[in-house]
UniProtKB/TrEMBL annotation:
InterPro entries: Aldolase_TIM, OxRdtase_FMN_N, YqjM-like. This is NADH:flavin oxidoreductase. Keywords: Flavoprotein, FMN, NADP, Oxidoreductase. The keyword Cell cycle does not apply. It comes from Allopusillimonas soli.
Amino acid sequence: MKLLEPLDIRNIQISNRLVLAPMSRMQANEDGTVSERMPLYYSNYARRGVGLLMTEALYTDKISGRAYFNQPGLCTAAQRDTWRTVVSAVHDMGGRIFAQLQHGGRLAEPGLNPQHIAASDGIAAGNTWQTGRPNAAARAATTSEIKQIIECFERAASYAVEAGFDGIEIHGARGYLIDDFLSASTNRREDEYGGSLENRLRLPVQIVECVRGVVGKRPISFNMSLYKMDDLSYTPPGGEAEMTSIASALETAGVDLLHVSTRKALRDEQWGEPLVKVIGAAVTRARVIANGGLKTLDDCSQCLALPGVEAVSLARALLSNPDWLSMALERRPLETYVPGMEREALRIA
Ligand SMILES: Cc1cc2nc3c(=O)[nH]c(=O)nc-3n(C[C@H](O)[C@H](O)[C@H](O)COP(=O)(O)O)c2cc1C
C-alpha cells in the first residue's frame, strides 16, 4: 500500500506518506512559548504512526505577524527553546516534524498586533476565525515593512534549525499574508510587489530564497490553496497556466514539497482534484502533498494514485481520530469531526 511506503525528501527519511496537516490549536502560553501538553500532543501522533507532522502555524514576528491569541511563535530564543522539547519528543517516537511559519496579515485577530498590515489597504470579508469578530481594516505594508517580514521568516527558520526541526513549511495559503500578496483579488499594489504575476510572486519567492539560505539541506514545504478564509471561490486571472507558473517559480526558488490544500482533494470542482493534478504536472523535482476532505483509507489511496502525489495530509480526521492509521487499517468506525473540537484540551493519548 503506497500510504505505508517510506518517503525520502532531500536528506530525511519519512516512515510513510501520512502527514498531519497544520492545525492551529491556540493553546500556547501567552508569550508564544510551547505549553505543557504540546510535546505530548504532537508526539502522540508520531507514536500512532503518522510519518510527518506539520506544526500548527507559528508566528514569525510580534509587530504584525500574529494571527490568533495563544498562538505559538518562533521569533524569540525562549520560544525556540520550548520547541526543542516538542521536536525531541516526536523524534523519540520515530516521527519527523516541520515548523510551519506564518504571517497572519489581514486575517489577524483585531487588536492582537501593534500593526495590522496586508498587501493592500482593505478589510477581509466576514468575521475572524478565532473570536468571530468582524475583521479589522488593514493597511498596505511599506517596502521597509516587507523587508522586515522577510527577515523575520529568515530568523524563524534559523530558530527552527536550532530547535532541531526536520524541515520548514511556509504558510502560503488561505488569505494570510503570503497568499494575500500572491492573489490578484487582494493584491492591488502598484510597486514591484503587485500587478503582474511575477510581481505578486516576489514576496513568496524572496521568503523561500531567504529560508533556503538558512536551512541548508533541510526540506522546505510550501502550503498553497486557492480558497481563502474570506473567499471560497477565488480563481486566478491566468487560470491553470498561472498555477503552473506559481508552482514552477516556487520550485526554482527552493521548495521541495508543494502542500496543496483544497476543500476536497478528490472532488471534481474547479480547484479540487484538478488543482492537485495541475500542480502534480507542473513540478519536476518537488513532491506534492495533497490535502482536503480525506477521511478514509480509500480516500488516501485514491489521492495517492493521482499523478505526482507522493503524500497525503489529514487535519480534521486526525484531530477527531489521533489513532486514525490503526483504525483505518483495521476498518474500525471513525469519529466524525465536530466544528470547535480544536478548542478542546489537547489530546495526549
Ligand atoms: C482546526 C483547524 C486549524 C487549522 N489550522 C491551520 C494552520 O495553522 N495552518 C494551515 O496551513 N492550515 C490550517 N488548517 C487547514 C488544514 O491544514 C487543512 O488544510 C484543512 O482542514 C482541510 O483538510 P482536512 O479536510 O483534512 O481537514 C486548519 C484546519 C482546521 C480544521
